[in-house]
Design goal:
The complex is a heterodimer of chains A (351) and B (781). Chain A is mostly beta strands. Helices cover 3% and strands 50% of the residues of chain A. Chain B has four domains: 92 residues, no CATH class; 125 residues, no CATH class; 150 residues, no CATH class; 187 residues, no CATH class. The chains are: A mainly beta (351), B mainly alpha (781). Chain B: InterPro entries: Vps51 (IPR014812).
Chain lengths: 351, 781
């Protein structure tokens, strides 16, 4: 395995699961991450990649009342982000704002803009529309899908609509289609469900068990990448939901997270509980869509889709984020609280 | 004259020149042209200038020379005079004799005229006499000629009148040739006078001819007649202006009909060989009688064709088509036949029959190039046969494998998987060898047809194996259910069983792949090298058709894939179990642990099932001891100790904190434990891998929950209980210890109040569980 020595490391104090790219920050490449500690005081770290790209600088350190299970940065305001947190017994979700003068304050407090407290069950995630300014938010808990309308200036979030996923469908997460503001994919035990936010109805589904994570291709419409516990990564064309367009072997143990590069076609990152991050190149061209068999039959003709495997992690990797400002950079977060930022530039030339 | 270059002395030469100039009518043509001025030789030329000559002579010569010249010249002149005289004298003599001759001729010619007159008179008288004779005989001659003509006419009339009777006689004696000759002879007369004077006669003879025609037709169609006779009949019929084309068509039809009869017989042969299930009989004995019968009929057919050719010499093309039709039909039947399952002996029998037919036909009908034609057709048939043989082999093997799919449910056998593996191994190896042996028969046979196809067959067999093995690989993947998601078509056809593919089958397939790679392919390669080398009908640039290296690689990777797939399938089942275990209870409100949770039993059961499957299929690992003593040993202590040491500690937060720190520290110093190593084809490796993956999953599931103290203790208890039985079945205890500790660490991290159970309580609960187990199942330790 190639060593991960090229990566730039940053240590969090506690264990952590989630990291997010601060998309709205167009001047710096920054990430935001939060810790997951049941019994300690949790922190949110705003990390910036130094201009030389050699160092990770802590730009802000804020205390967060509970352990953070999900965190995502607002795509249009770099100071706003959402978290899903747990006290151990109950779950909550909130929208936070980083105070303006945080650099000067001694121990700045996060400002809670809104609490998404209509939830009862275990909240899984809060979704922002990834493609730009949109005053809606989605939050998903075990059984329900909420559409919130957020007003940052009034510091208020109201439930606009809510729909139950139906009996025996425990939702586990979701992804908002960057190409369609009204389409959301929600993962549940046995399938990926697609919702239309206008009607709050399920439109279709991919029947596939144990999908852990789903991610839309930012560039190409109708392409969804899913990560499954045991059976690797699948790339779907949503117009043909029966059969995956492509299959990637994934990880030795579970494939936890998967994310498509926002710029380069076919570049996919996956993180797994086998303590590795894999970089895949699996371009979907019109020609080879139905030809997924070809991979199995003629392995010599097809280049290995695995470009690189970053294995310099001590624990399972749960957090994964591309930088949208410098799309050849990604941040990964392993459970032991270590952020590693890597550049994939050496592999871009191979394309 | 001057061209005569014979060397003469000066004098003689000059003489001749002088004489020739004398006789020559044109003085300018003499060779001594006037160019030689100023020399003393110019004396002989026509343009001789005495003054100049003199001057020259006087100038050039001294007195003595002049005198000498003078003497010479005088002598010369004298000589010349003499010569001249001699010449004149000779010529005069000739002239005189000529004159004498003329005089004699004159005197001889005088009496001739009278003789000529006499001759004329005599000729005149002869002519007048002959005229007289002529006139006197003319009348008689006229008469004779008339009589002669009448006689001829009468004879003809007689002939016509006799014709019917004569024809009848001919019919009786079967001298049809004469009859036809007579009739055609009489034809012009019948044409001219048939309607008037010879009406009766004509009718009678036409009747007779009709009989003749009928007889001739009969003769033509009767097979008992000799070909010669039939050919003659055809010729005669043609002479009689009978529409022979019609006959030809009819006869051809008949031939075609016999062709179909022949075809039917080919079918019969096959039916016979198909019906007799006894393989020893199939090719040899039972085929014998119909073959001979068939041969006889073909011989007959060939004879018929030969006859036909003689009878209708211009019918070559039709016959060629006919013969080719026969061959085509033969091969069509053969191809139909090949579609069914036959041994190559059977096919050989059929081919042999066909070839014999073809050779027979070829003798008769060489233009049809039947051998080449049938060679092409046979090429197709044999190719199809090779292909279908491989398809059947593939089918056999997958049948054997599918039987595995069914039988374990019945559980009648003790080691269903082992049996299946043995059976499928045998099916693959034996099947391949049988196929090769089968094809060897083609090569060993000295049938002309096959000898020519030899190279092709070799290539086909090689290609066939290449294709067969790749197809087998595909089939394996399909059977293992790996492909049904990506290939909808196959998924549909095989969907019924691919839904619930048995993990055991996957394991069998994995081991079978390895077996194929390590045993079957070398054997096949050997066999091919032994009996199917050469070939070369393919271009060199294409390389050999059978590439064992590539196939080996395919199977090696297939084996790995399948083994992984097996591990995955098994792990998934355990994962489902664990998922249920962890998602169902509310861990935050867990009650105090009273006993080891039953998921542990289920987990161990799964592992036991895996163990049973694996033991049947995979060999035991050799490296067991060596593995255990490997570097990972240290991790056990470094990871598990902090927890145990801290058992007594009561200050929860403080303890937890230091614990986390310690785990971090431990991680820093320990060697990274290789949890995910390569799976090997041994019982231990597979089981260990599965256990490792399951424990890792367990850890991940734990990490997703939040526990109260009792929940944590429950986990601790369960894990503690798992420790012993797991160590018994895996090859690398250190890793298992590490992973189990990791689970407990994860649980403690996710626990609001991580107070572990007291060791005595832990022990007691475990003992209780063990006792319960013993009670339930006395055999289990």
């Amino acid at each position: 395995m190639q060593g991960g020595s090229s990566g730039i490391g940053y240590g969090l104090k506690y264990q952590a699961r989630c990291i997010s790219d601060v998309k709205a920050d167009t001047d710096h490449t920054s990430f935001i991450t939060g810790t997951l500690s049941l019994r300690e005081e949790n922190e949110v770290h705003l990390i910036r990649l130094s201009s030389g790209g050699t160092e990770l600088i802590c730009e802000g350190l804020f205390s967060h009342p509970n352990e953070i299970w999900d965190l995502s940065s607002c795509p249009f305001d770099q100071r706003i982000f959402s978290t899903v947190f747990s006290t151990g017994e109950s779950y909550g979700a909130a929208i936070w704002q980083i105070p303006e003068l945080y650099g000067q304050l001694n121990s700045p407090q996060l400002e809670r803009i809104a609490s998404l407290d209509a939830h009862v069950g275990k909240i899984n995630c809060v979704l922002w529309w990834p493609s730009g300014r949109h005053d809606k938010l989605i939050s998903i808990d075990d059984e329900n899908l909420f559409l919130w309308s957020l007003d940052c200036s009034k510091k208020a979030a109201q439930v606009q609509s809510k729909e139950s996923s139906g009996m025996l469908h425990y939702l586990s997460g979701g992804a908002w289609d960057p190409h369609d503001v009204n389409a959301v994919a929600a993962t549940c035990e046995s399938s990926v469900q697609f919702w239309d936010l206008r009607t709050m109805k399920k439109t279709s589904a991919i029947e596939r068990a144990h999908i852990r994570n789903a991610n839309y291709d930012m560039k190409k419409k109708h392409i969804l990448v899913t990560a499954e516990d045991e059976s690797g990564i699948h790339i779907w064309d949503l117009r043909k939901p029966k059969i995956p367009v492509k299959e990637l072997p994934g990880h030795t143990h579970w494939t936890w997270a998967v994310t498509c590069n926002p710029e380069y076609d076919g570049l996919i990152l996956s993180a797994g509980t086998d303590s590795t991050v894999n970089l895949w190149l699996a371009p979907i061209s019109a020609g080879d869509e139905p030809n997924s068999e070809g991979i199995a039959e003629s392995p010599t003709q097809q280049a290995d889709p695995l470009l690189n495997s970053y294995s310099d992690y001590e624990d399972s990797v749960y957090g994964l984020a591309w930088s949208s400002r410098e799309p050849w950079i990604f941040a990964s977060l392993s459970y032991d609280g270590r952020v590693v930022v890597e550049s994939i530039k050496p592999f871009l030339s191979r394309k | 004259m001057g061209t005569d270059d014979v060397p003469l002395d000066d004098k003689a030469k000059r003489m001749r020149d002088l004489l020739s100039s004398f006789y020559s009518p044109d003085p300018s043509s003499t060779p001594n042209a006037p160019s030689k001025h100023g020399t003393l030789d110019a004396i002989n030329t026509t343009s001789f200038d005495p003054d100049q000559y003199m001057n020259l002579l006087v100038q050039k010569s001294n007195l003595e020379a002049l005198l000498k010249r003078h003497v010479e010249m005088a002598a010369e002149i004298k000589n010349l005079d003499t010569d001249l005289q001699m010449l004149v004298y000779e010529n005069y003599n000739k002239f005189i004799s000529a004159t004498d001759s003329i005089k004699r001729m004159k005197s001889n010619i005088v009496g001739m005229e009278a003789n000529m007159g006499q001759l004329l008179d005599k000729i005149m008288s002869v002519q007048s006499r002959s005229d007289g004779v002529n006139t006197s005989l003319f009348e008689k001659r006229e008469h004779i000629e008339k009589l002669h003509r009448t006689r001829n006419l009468l004879r003809k009339v007689q002939f016509i009148y006799d014709l019917p009777a004569r024809l009848g006689k001919c019919i009786k004696s079967e001298a049809y040739a004469d009859a036809v000759k007579f009739y055609t002879g009489a034809m012009p007369i019948f044409k001219a006078y048939g309607d008037s004077s010879f009406q009766d006669c004509k009718r009678a003879s036409e009747d007779a001819v009709a009989i003749i025609v009928k007889n001739l037709q009969g003769k033509l169609f009767s097979d008992s007649e000799s070909i010669q006779a039939r050919a003659e009949a055809a010729v005669l019929l043609k002479q009689l202006d009978f529409p022979v084309d019609n006959l030809q068509a009819k006869l051809l039809e008949k031939l075609e009909q016999s062709l179909w009869d022949l075809q039917l017989k080919t079918d019969e042969i096959e039916n016979v060989s198909m019906d007799s299930n006894d393989p020893s009989k199939q090719g040899k004995v039972s085929d014998l009688s119909p073959t001979t019968a068939h041969e006889a009929s073909v011989r007959e057919f060939a004879e018929a064709i030969r006859a036909y050719r003689i009878i209708f010499p211009d019918s070559g093309r039709q016959l060629i088509t006919l013969a080719q039709d026969l061959v085509i039909n033969h091969f069509e039947t053969t191809e139909q036949y090949v579609k069914r399952r036959i041994s190559s002996a059977n096919l050989l029998g059929v081919l042999r029959t066909i070839w014999a037919d073809v050779l027979l036909m070829d003798e008769v009908l060489h233009e049809a190039v039947l051998p080449d034609f049938s060679l092409e057709a046979a090429q197709g048939a044999v190719k199809k046969y090779v292909a279908s043989t491989f398809t059947y082999l593939l089918q056999d093997i997958s049948d054997v494998l599918l039987r595995v799919n069914v039988s374990p449910k019945e559980a009648a056998e003790e080691h269903p998987l082992q049996v299946a593996l043995e059976a499928s191994r045998k099916a693959v190896l034996q099947g391949s060898m049988d196929v090769l042996l089968d094809f060897c028969q083609f090569l060993d046979d000295d049938l002309g047809l096959l000898v020519k196809l030899r190279d092709f067959i070799i290539d086909w067999v090689q290609e066939g194996f290449q294709g067969f093995l790749s197809a087998l690989d595909d089939r394996f993947l399909l059977l293992s259910g790996r492909k049904n998601s990506s290939s909808p078509d196959q998924g549909l056809t095989e969907g019924a069983h691919s839904e619930k593919v048995l993990a055991g089958l996957v394991l069998v397939l994995a081991q079978l792949s390895i077996f194929i790679e390590q045993t079957v392919i070398p054997r096949i390669t050997e066999e091919i090298a032994a009996s199917f080398s050469g070939g070369g009908a393919r271009g060199i640039e294409n390389g050999p058709a059978f590439v064992p290296g590539e196939i080996c690689r395919i199977f090696r990777s297939a084996g790995e894939k399948l083994l992984h797939h097996y591990v995955n399938m098994r792990t998934q089942r355990v994962s489902a179990l664990l998922r249920k275990r962890f998602s169902t209870p509310n861990w935050v409100k867990h009650k105090e642990p009273r006993e080891v949770h039953m998921f542990v039993d289920l987990f161990l059961q799964e592992l036991k099932a895996i163990g049973i499957e694996v033991k049947q299929i995979l060999p035991q690992g050799l490296l067991r001891k060596h593995w255990r003593s490997d570097s990972n040993g240290s991790t056990t202590s470094s990871r598990s100790n902090p927890l145990r040491d801290d058992k007594m500690s009561r200050s929860n937060t403080q303890r937890a904190r230091s614990q986390l720190l310690e785990t971090h520290l431990a991680k820093l110093f320990k060697q990274k434990v290789e949890i995910f190593t390569k799976v090997e084809y041994t019982q231990e490796s597979v089981v260990t891998t599965i256990v490792k993956l399951c424990l890792k999953s367990l850890q991940e599931f734990v990490r997703l929950q939040t526990f109260n103290r009792s929940g944590f203790q429950q986990i601790q208890l369960d894990i503690q209980f798992l420790r012993t039985p797991l160590k018994e079945i895996v090859e690398d205890e250190a890793v298992i210890d590490f992973l189990l500790d990791e689970v407990i660490v994860a649980a403690s991290e996710r626990c609001l109040d991580p107070t572990p159970l007291e060791p005595p309580i832990l022990d007691r609960l475990i003992q209780a569980k063990l006792a319960k187990l013993k009670e339930q199942n006395p055999i289990t330790p």
